[in-house]
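@channel anyone free to eyeball this complex?
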Amino acid sequence: QKEVEQNSGPLSVPEGAIASLNCTYSDRGSQSFFWYRQYSGKSPELIMFIYSNGDKEDGRFTAQLNKASQYVSLLIRDSQPSDSATYLCALNQAGTALIFGKGTTLSVSS
Amino acid sequence: GAVVSQHPSRVICKSGTSVKIECRSLDFQATTMFWYRQFPKQSLMLMATSNEGSKATYEQGVEKDKFLINHASLTLSTLTVTSAHPEDSSFYICSARDFLRTEAFFGQGTRLTVV
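replying in thread with the prediction:
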């Protein structure tokens, strides 16, 4: 059984702060890791993906992957109220469907 | 990113009727499409995976005779919910990927309400 674990939150941060979202997974065979953002009633939007150990930066977002610890995280710098959403961690092996965590709700207060 | 269009965005139907949901990849050829279902406050649960020209592979617990999936072309997949019941009310989301990319792209989702 492949499992993706996320703290459901809510995670509350003030505007301008760094939000740190975490995800652990059980399947060591997982190869690619994704972060999606989902607003209420909407479909998920891809933020970024990572498949090598270390950090990957894209604008205000940084994904961090540690395969030895089976841990992937997403940092959001200079958080904005518009970042308030549910953040879904997902993973897969080559060619397979994404398996999603339950998501962490982020609330950024102005 | 690539564009995946899902239609309708919202549908209300009577119990016992069937509903068809379309998922189209607009600017790429989707060799694989995935169908998910999401209940309120829950994560996305994979229902089935379909490859163009092949029968869909359903996840455990998903009734293939109730949720009919057709992936007849590289740009279109359909999900038909047959003999819908109120417990089928949910948010259905398709996702598509081509053979070149790691990531999959999502349609806008369909909110199905069975009354």
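from a first look: DSSP finds no helices and eleven strands in chain B.
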